[in-house]
Amino acid sequence: MKYDVHLPGPSWSENENKGEDGDRVSLLTDQTAVVTGGAQGLGYAIAELFIAEGAQVVLGDLDLAATEAAAKQLGSDSALAVRCDVTKADEVDALVAAAVEHFGGLDIMVNNAGITRDATIRKMTEEQFDQVIAVHLKGTWNGTKAAAAIMRENKRGAIVNMSSISGKVGLIGQTNYSAAKAGIVGLTKAAAKELAHLGVRVNAIQPGLIRSAMTEAMPQHIWDQKLAEVPMGRAGEPAEVAKVALFLASDLSSYMTGTVLEVTGGRHV
Length: 269
Ligand SMILES: NC(=O)c1ccc[n+]([C@@H]2O[C@H](COP(=O)([O-])OP(=O)(O)OC[C@H]3O[C@@H](n4cnc5c(N)ncnc54)[C@H](O)[C@@H]3O)[C@@H](O)[C@H]2O)c1
Known about the structure:
Elements: E1 32-36, H1 41-52, E2 56-61, H2 64-74, E3 79-83, H3 89-103, E4 108-111, H4 126-154, E5 157-162, H5 166-169, H6 175-195, E6 200-207, H7 213-216, H8 220-228, H9 238-249, E7 260-263
Helix pairs in contact: 1-9, 3-4, 4-6
């Protein structure tokens, strides 16, 4: 028996992603993305890959000079720097408004800004706990809320939240960070359910040990300990997280929402 199946949303075929001359068509042509914490590390790598795939990107980060330098490196036609502290709702609102004003819309929001304030619970101060919760959990909530307000009107959009494997398994010295990163998973799933019928998808990434300023600040013996837990036997590169962010931001993942993808080289599976 032959079934005639009509699926909603973009279809996929072998040739769909090819141009007339057979070259691969970019995945994010003319789309606008906001990346928080985009001045360096994973955020910068995500912005770089999105631009290579045809997007314009607004980088939101704390230090305007560093963010402007990053945007300049990415090319001023495709990247805009905005000073933004993600813990402040009004600054996040201004960040997404800048994307609409400067590039004419908002298709993708990557809530990536982050800090660590590691200490065992005996030594961790209340301030260190509050800071980490504010940047990761409140920051991601601020970004999701601001982006969703625009995306729901357009009936399309993809939000990608940066969690961590620390939020899945809990890591020593990270009661603040593990709590925030686990919270991002709950936030992602709840927002995915609220926004699905509006055409807005919300997904999360849990990176493991990725080479960046955040992890290079780690004492060597801690780095070695973590590396020993990675079945693939090496740390990941920011570009390898960026490829997964591209997948979740693009129509390649058109039927995925509320999911959490681990990018860990097999660590803690
Ligand atoms: N590197 C890893 O191994 C790893 C693993 C798992 C998760 N992550 C997560 O990936 C994200 C990026 O981490 P990274 O390794 O690139 O770190 P990074 O320190 O290199 O970059 C983080 C960026 O966030 C910015 N930032 C910090 N607080 C901010 C705030 N309040 N408002 C706006 N920007 C702010 C910083 O200025 C910096 O540019 C973080 O959420 C981090 O928790 C990283």
